[in-house]
Specification:
Strand order of the largest sheet: 1-2-3-4-5-7-6
Shape: globular
Low-confidence stretches: 1-11
Order of helices and strands: HEEEEHEHEHEH
Structural class: alpha+beta
Distance between the termini: 12 Å
Number of helices: 5
């Protein structure tokens, strides 16, 4: 059994993040985090790329989000993995994002919006996020009280929340399995 299946067996989540970077390099992937601190918030852009020809990089996937100093402060905005990315890239992005959050912020829960652009795609998104460990909080539609959330996430959909450690554990397990 891989030590990555149990993140609590690590000395710290900082070590876990370093281990994920090392594992990515062993798979010829580059994992990078760009973090800012505007107005007391944390902004995050995490990318996974592959070295290309002539020193260039080929972007394979990314996660964007921000956090504020609260238990439920991690807000995820964009998760994207290219169809040509090798297996496990999405799991690496999820695991690294959750490990970073546990290291750098006081957050224990994360929120995201499963955007409702197309009904079929929306159902797929909700199922995907549920497999990662998120559960539905409420629908975000056209009501006046939904306006702040629609402004934050740029649309209507289903607001979901997940325990960061649960998402981390599930993502680590899938990342580990993708190497087999």
């Amino acid at each position: 059994m891989s030590p990555f299946l149990n993140p609590l067996s690590h000395r710290s989540n900082a070590t876990l993040l370093e281990d994920l970077e090392l594992q990515a390099r062993q798979r010829d992937l580059i994992l990078r985090l760009q973090v800012g601190r505007p107005l007391g918030l944390w902004s995050l852009r995490l990318v996974v790329a592959r070295p290309g020809g002539t020193g260039s990089l080929q972007l394979l996937g990314e996660m964007k989000g921000w956090a504020y100093a609260a238990d439920t402060g991690l807000q995820l905005d964009t998760m994207r993995v290219l169809p040509t990315a090798p297996p496990g890239v999405g799991d690496l992005i999820w695991a690294a994002t959750m490990a970073w959050s546990l290291v750098a912020t006081p957050c224990n829960r994360s929120r995201l919006l499963a955007i409702r652009d197309d009904d079929r795609q929306h159902r797929r998104l909700v199922r995907y996020f549920q497999r990662k460990g998120f559960s539905t909080v409420r629908a975000v539609d056209a009501a006046l009280w939904d306006l702040p959330l629609r402004l934050i996430w740029g649309g209507a959909g289903v607001l979901m929340s997940g325990d960061i450690k649960t998402v981390l554990e599930r993502s680590l397990s899938s990342w580990d399995q993708s190497a087999a």
